[in-house]
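fyi for ur records
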Amino acid sequence: MKIILILIICSLILTSCYEDITDTVIPNQSPETGLSLYPDSSLGSQPSRLTVSWWGDDPDGLIIGYYFSWDGINWTFTKNNDSLFSLQIGAVDTTYIFRVSAVDNSGNGIFDNRILQNNIDYGPEPFVDANQNGIYENNETFYDIGLIDPTPAEINLPIKNSTPTISWSSLSFLPDTSFPVMTFGWNVEDIDGNETVQRIDIALNDTNNFISIDGAVRIATIRINDLDSENPLMDVLIEGNASNIAPEKLPGLKMNEDNIFYVRAVDVSGAASPFIRLPDEESSWFVKKPNGKLLVIDDYTSTDNAAGFYSDMMDSLDLNNDYDVYDFHTNEPPFLSITFLETIKLFRYSLWYADNNTSLDLAISSVQKYLDTGGKILFSIQFPQTVDLLSLQGFLPIVADSSNTRSSLSSGVKISAELTQAAYPELETTSSLFRVRSFYLEELGVIPIYYFPNSELNGYIGFSNSLKNLFFVGLPFHKLNGGNANVKILLQKILFQDFGLTP
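which gave:
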């Protein structure tokens, strides 16, 4: 019996060896795609700058890249698995649909000028455009597109607009008192992108009475032109540039009163930051109306009652109610170079006095611009022991390669005018002076006037330009009033006759 069973089994095995083997060909399968947001979060409203990550899986091949789209029509190829997107915010919150499809490596081995799959025209196969001519050439690397996931992974992204934030820049502050000129600077941030900040609103004293400037502006200088107006309007200098003035003027200034400046940022959706203010609630900013056309610029930091001398001298010239003092050391303004120039331009005439610590940077950057606007300026200043003569030539008509210096002068030293300039009185020092410098003058554009008749120094210590809108004396007037006390006569000559100031 066992022998019979063995024979039957062997017979069946031999029979099966002669049956045909049938192969079932499995077609290439499409890849699958997944995606996620980073950081992982619920699908609520997202900021308009977000990172999307994706991945692919192919059961019978490899993933070589991805196509993604924001509209389902235009698709972009990438090798990457994630990207940071900045989505444009409109006037209202917006919902975007992001789609991504994985691509496998089952391409045909040749460059295809057009990929049509899934009823979508993906365009030509992506390639590395080595010569940047926009045309595929045979020696250039391309991505051989295989199957593209026909069911893209997609996600709805409701994008919520974020309100911009605004803060004062580190250079923004206010002095207790100023003339009707001031410069303000601020920082603006918007996580939707700073380019979405559409406008900056600024106001004086009343936030309901604001004007708007471009959203990219970060510095603005406000200044008045009509000092006699009952309702003055202020120019707004964009980035402090007098050649770039906002078309709308700023109302609300209160002359000879405390004032408050407000600013806020508004984005393209109309979302606005709260107004911020300067000064803060614990401080005040008094805006002083100029008394007249003459400004005395106090650049004197030594303590020897120079301010008292000039006050008395102005009174003796009957200018007691017709001039102002600008002590920018005590009441330092922000953005000094901008604010200083626009402040002195409020006045037709200026008298700038200083010790050896003259604010040269301000003089170099502002004097010629002041003169170009019709201003006239009288200097009674000294310079530091070391000074760049070439920089001084930027506002003084001097020879830039030589000057004459002396470490000290005693009292009683006489300073005389040239014989051809007899209308200018003799001066005499009243105390010791240190680090004195005289100058050699250009041949043209200058009138030599004061020199040392006893040759304590060579060159000239006083001169005027030929336009008679700049007069320079290289020593402080309050230490030149010895002898016949002629400083008053000199000021009368320069201010009233040369400059044309009327008391």
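The mean pLDDT is 90. thats all i got for now
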